[in-house]
Amino acid sequence: MIQLHDVDLKLLRVFAAIVKCGGFSAAQAALNAGQSTISEQMAHLETRLGVKLCQRGRSGFQLTEQGVAIHEATLRLLAAVEHFCSDADVLKQDISGQLNLGIIDSTISDPDSPIPRTTQRFVSRGHDVHLNVYVGSPAELEERVLDGRLHLAVGHFPIHVPGLHYSSLYQEALGVYCGRRHPLFASKAQGADQLKEISESRIVARGYMQQHDLEQLGVSKAAATVDNIEATAILIISGAYIGLLPTHFAAQWVKNGEMRQLIPNQLQLMSPFDLISRRGVVPPPILQAFLEDLAACSRQNGLDTTVFANKS
To answer: Where is the HTH lysR-type domain (predicted)?
Structure first.
C-alpha cells in the first residue's frame, strides 16, 4: 500500500493543475514553474505511484486509463483535505480558507440574482478567503457538491438528488425567441396562430429542463438539445431554431435586432433557481458567513431565505 507524505500531496496538486489546464505547457502560469520542473514533478509522481499517468506527443496531452482513475481519486483526496482544513477552522472560528462556489452559465445579466451583491458584501468584510467559482451544468454542479469539490451551488435543479439540500432562491423570467433569419421573425401572426407556428418550428431545448421546455412550447420533441444557455442563443441566432432564453440574457440581441421575442404576453415563463449544499455536513465558518450574507442580500429583494441560512 502506498504511504502518502506531504511531498505527495504537493505532487498531486501539480497533477490536478496540469489536467485542469489541459497540459504541461498550459499549466506553467498556473503553477508558476517551468516546463522542465513540471515534467520532473510528474515523473516523480509516476515513480511514487508506479503507474503512467499521461501521454504527451503530437496528438497532445492525454490521460492514460490509470491517469483518469488517479485524477478522480486526487480530486476526492484534495476535497477531503480542504474539508479537514474547514473543520479545523470551525474549532478556531476563523473566517479563512477557500470557498468553492458553483453556478450555471449566463446569469451575469440577471438583475434578480443575489450572487454579485452577496459576493461584494462577503468580500468587503475583510475575510482571509480565496474564492473559487465554477460554472457548469446542473448535473455537474450536483456532482461536485456531492463529492465535496464545491461548498454550494446555484442553478436549475428539476430533479432532486439524495444527499443534497435544496432551497428556493429566486425566479428567472424566460421568453421564447427566434433569430432575425428565422421565418417567424417577420411573421404578423398573433395569439393562437403564432402558437401554432411555434409548435411547427424546430425547437432547441435545454437537456436538464427538456420536458418542461417542450411542454411550454406545445411540442413533443426537440430538434436540438443543449446543456447551457449560450449554446441555446447560438442556435437561435442562426435562424434555424426557436427556443427559451432568460429575458435578461436575450435583451442585448433583441435591442440590436438579432432576435425577436415571440408573443411575450402569452409565453413569458418563470424558472426557479435553487441553492444546493451537501446534507449531513456542519457548515464551516467560511460557508456559514457566506450563507448569512446571501440571506441578507436576498431579503433586500423581498425573498425570505432564512430557510437555508443555518443549514448545510
So the answer is: 7-64
Residue linked to cell 411550454: 216
**Residues 170, 116: Cα–Cα separation, whole Å:** 14
* pLDDT of 284: 82
Is pLDDT above 90 for 105?
A: yes
CA pair distance 84, 155, nearest whole angstrom: 27
14 falls within a domain = yes
How far is Cα 154 from Cα 54, in angstroms, rounded to an integer? 34
Cell of 16: 490536478
- Give the tens place of pLDDT for each residue, 61-101: 889 999 899 999 888 888 887 767 655 554 445 567 889 99
Q: How far is CA 116 from the centre of its chain?
A: 15
Give the Cα separation of 50 and 38 in Å (integer): 18
Say which residue, 85 or 247, is predicted with more confidence.
Answer: 247
pTM exceeds 0.90: no
Q: Judge whether 257 and 251 are in contact, CB under 8 Å.
A: no
* Alpha-carbon distance values, 306 to 74, 199, 299 (Å): 35, 41, 9
Are 253 and 277 in a shared domain?
Answer: no
Residue 224 is inside which H or E element, if any?
strand 224-226
Q: For position 89, what pLDDT does the model report? A: 52
Distance CA 103, CA 47 (A): 38
Q: How confident is the model at residue 2 (pLDDT cuts 50, 70, 90)?
A: low
Q: Check the CA dihedral 222-228-229-232 and report its sign.
A: negative
Residues 265, 178 share a domain: yes
Looking at the structure, tell me whether residues 25 and 41 fall in a common domain.
yes
